[in-house]
């Protein structure tokens, strides 16, 4: 017991020493000044986790890509019905899909990525002012929200914009280097989010505005991830395997790749498609769809030679008041009995953030 406690105390000391630098993983790269980078022990995955990885095979199957061209056609038109059917299939079988011709200009996507890079690659003293683990702070920069809970820290830094308690973002709270690009990107997302929730509603056999009336898009968290090149990506991960505590997540990823989805117990790559956005079903949509749509495990691997970036926007529903969510009555009436209890987003999110990202899905807390 004494040896175990000493080991835990030593790890905690290492975690705190790293955190106190307020420099993130990028700070390790900068400190090496072009020389070899030693991966600190706190980032090394435990042997049992690495062994478990070896048991999973890879598949050449690819996450479905859906062309939204014609999505504005009348509800019930042949083109829109085709899109709805593709969304239904992807949401039931994969829990993931990519969308192209989604209406957000390529320039907006490029500027968003440029802003993420410029924030992370600016002088470290400028970033330190945003470094925080205060849950009440809307805009903050840190390494891993679950840094002190996970079995191994992930090789990434994140700029987070948490709009779950307050839905209104003051642009002046954002770092100046990425302020305009972030506001522009969030504004452009609004129409796409409305369209996606309409398609998902129709895919559940509901009226197009059903999920909108549930206010599934109400609160958001924007996570701008920066994954520096990792000298030994086999020993660590960019982000641990997990499911998302959201209704849906929309992800912008760069050409480096590394996002993987667990499909039929095999890892499938989410290939980079220029201009595409990745959409995945979160836990909350799996619950309200009564298990019809699937929130699936995914992760991001590291890259030995290139820095990877991604921007995830999580849509959580109403979280600032105790609004009750549960399996949608119309869906339940047409299928099996409810398999989940009712819940509030606030309670669900509290449970999510009180555990490590790599622990069991939060769905277990509300499953009947």
Automatic annotation (TrEMBL):
GO molecular function, one term: metal ion binding
Domain Fe2OG dioxygenase: 217-317
Keyword Oxidoreductase: yes
Pfam families referenced in this protein's UniProt entry, alphabetically: 2OG-FeII_Oxy, DIOX_N
Annotated keywords: Iron, Metal-binding, Oxidoreductase, Vitamin C
Family assignment from sequence similarity: Belongs to the iron/ascorbate-dependent oxidoreductase family.
UniProt-recorded name of the protein: Fe2OG dioxygenase domain-containing protein
Organism annotation: Lactuca sativa (Garden lettuce)
